[in-house]
Amino acid sequence: MVPTRMKVFTSTLCTTMHTPAYEFLSGAETHYYESPDRRDVILKYLESQGDAFEVTERTEDFGAGPIERVHKQDFIDYLKTAYEEWIEEGGHPNGVLPGTIPHYKVARLGKLKASNCLAKSGEYCFDMSAVITKDTFKAAWNAAQVTLTATKDLVRAADEFEQSVEAGTVTRESPPGLYALVRPPGHHAQSDICGGYCYLNNLAIAAQWLIDQPDLKSKADGGPKRIAILDIDFHHGNGTQEIFYTVANPLYTSLHSVDDYPYFTGSDLEKGEGEGLGFNINVPLAQATTNDDYVETLDKLIQDHVIPFKPDYILVSLGVDTYKDDPIAGFLVTSEGYPRIGNSIRKIGVPTLFVQEGGYCIEKLGLNVGGILLGFMGKTGVPQ
Question: Where is each Histone deacetylase domain found (predicted)?
Fold first, then answer.
């Protein structure tokens, strides 16, 4: 039987580690929006929803292998040692932030790599929000392991779902869903660069792990399992796009704001390259996008691209910075819109893992994340 509750994978380490004091936005020093409070308020809301959610802190350690399949070794090594090197070289103890970022117009003859952390901070980071503290690598590692643990359970839940469908005890209208409540988030992290609060790309690591499992075969063609990624964060997932831009599996799809952070990616002209041509789908949206606009566009994306791909699993980059009052983003989407978004994803009829990304309106964060998850479970009433 398919569980009536959604399993939530998380860890207290998501709260106790990686706590930068500040960041820089629009030239000003400000408090760190990607704060540990985010995990706490989401968890509090989910726990208030009776028996709808089952929270577990069971985390397996999958080691470095799955991370190394997605991120380059020199970048991983940098994240491990950046803070210690930074302090040794006189950097501020709040954390590593780049002072100089290589510009594409600044040509360097030869291939000399940066030799000190003050330079590496710009080589391996593209903005002023990905502060590296003494615990950042441990926190990012933990987030990846929690996500992988949830991904392994997705395989189990999907197998049980198929058996139940074949037995006639459930229909494909009730697919299993799981949720990885993790921080720091991941979808801005590229194969060898961090930014946008992201260091290791949790969802990309999970997708590649599923593809790499030799015993998991796609129902469509008997090859590796087919993964469709739905990125519903307000900001384009430049990291996930870059990692999978030249491959046909997974399919990457993204709904995001036009002409907003990270500014230089996310065009609908970016369709993939080589074997990946046609498997990268960007849908930029106007900042005046309403609930109806968003759901209508999401449904069309699903019908035109996701369902024809015949995915075995759906992985959702779950960002609710689409909310109208988000302090650093926001469409005109209201809390009433999120159950509708979850319901649209449910109707795909495929086992789904939600992985937490953005969302910074602390007052409504739990309500909005919970709305998507409850909507996926078929509970489409106005969230409370």
Answer: 33-366
Statement: the pTM of the whole predicted model exceeds 0.85: yes
* Residue 240 near residue 208, CB atoms below 8 Å: no
- Residue in 327, 188, 207, 195 with CA at minimum distance from that of residue 266: 188
Taking residues 118-136, what's their average pLDDT? 92
Of 99-108, 298-307, 324-333, 335-344, give the lowest mean pLDDT range.
99-108
3 state DSSP class of 161: helix
Distances (CA, A) of 363 to 10, 36, 373: 21, 14, 18
d(C-alpha 275, C-alpha 23), whole Å: 39
Alpha-carbon torsion 208, 8, 197, 264, what sign?
A: positive
Residue-wise pLDDT for 201-242, tens only, equals 999 999 999 999 999 999 888 999 999 999 999 999 999 999
Q: Tell me the CA distances in angstroms from 64 to 10, 29, 77, 197, 209, one per residue in order.
A: 19, 35, 11, 21, 12
Residues designated catalytic: 188
Picking from 260, 248, 315, the residue whose alpha carbon sits closest to that of residue 284 is 260
Q: What phi and psi values does residue 157 have, to the nearest 5 degrees? A: -65, -35
Paired tokens of 160:
């049980």
pLDDT of 344 above 90: yes
For residue 227, which phi and psi values (nearest 5 degrees)? -115, 125
Report the chain's C-alpha Rg in angstroms. Answer: 20
SS3 224: strand
Longest CA span, the chain: 65
Are the C-beta atoms of residues 230 and 252 closer than 8 Å to each other? Answer: no
Predicted pLDDT at 1: 47
Q: How far apart are CA 146 and CA 148, in angstroms?
A: 5
Helix (H, G, I), strand (E, B) or coil at 276: helix
**Which residues, listed in sequence order, are joined to residue 284 by a DSSP beta bridge?**
256
